[in-house]
Amino acid sequence: MKKYLLPLVALAFTSPAAAQSIIVVSGPQADSTALPVAYAELKAGDNHGAVAKLTGETTLDARDPARLINLGTAYARLGRTSEAAAAYGAAVASPIRYDLELANGDYVDSRWAARTALANLKQDRPLLALAR
Predict the structure, then answer these.
(1) Nearest Cα residue to 102 out of 21, 26, 32, 37
(2) Exposed e or buried b for every residue in 19-30, given b needs 16+ CB within 10 A?
(3) Would you tell me which of 9, 18, 86, 101 could form a disulfide with 25, CB atoms 3.0–4.6 Å apart?
(4) Which of 95, 113, 126 is nearest to 25 (CA)?
(5) Alpha-carbon span 86 to 68, nearest angstrom
(6) Model confidence pLDDT, tens digit, residues 20-60
(7) What is the CA radius of gyration of the chain?
(8) Whose CA is closest to 53, among 72, 37, 77?
(9) What are the structural domains of the chain?
């Protein structure tokens, strides 16, 4: 876990968007198709678009941690902290678990990413990294 913490902390200081969110890039994939987890919308700061994409029709399981983490991030950015906490909590409790790719290219456990995001939200700290 220490090997992931330093790059995430470093990423927090690289840009304002990166300092605000954990955003998932992707998870395990059988092919090279990216998961529809609203990474482009979150990276562009289109939080309403990300919420619409993640709560609308999607091929992702409603319990998918990447979907839930990015939904929590969009809610947190919109100031909807109770909904963000619920999404992060659902990602922590999800029966689906895998390593997520973060925007900086690092891979971390989905539950670790969700717990980190939830802890930072509860402590009113900026979140560490974008996940795609």
Answers:
(1) 26
(2) bbbbbbbbbeee
(3) 101
(4) 113
(5) 9
(6) 466 766 555 555 456 789 999 998 999 999 999 999 988 88
(7) 13
(8) 37
(9) 2-122 (1.25.40)
DSSP-assigned states of every residue in 110-121:
HHHHHHHHHHHH
- Residue listed under structure tokens 């990300």: 50
Distances (CA, A) of 76 to 6, 22, 84, 105, 118: 23, 10, 5, 22, 10
Buried b (16+ CB within 10 A) or exposed e, 83-120: bbbbbbebbbebebebebbbbbebebebbebbebbbeb
Report which residue type is found at 131: A
Task: Report pLDDT digits (tens) over 73-83.
Answer: 999 999 999 99
Q: What is the largest CA-CA distance in the chain?
A: 38
Task: Write out the two tokens for 59.
Answer: 């091929």
C-alpha neighbours within 13 Å on the C-beta side of residue 15: 11
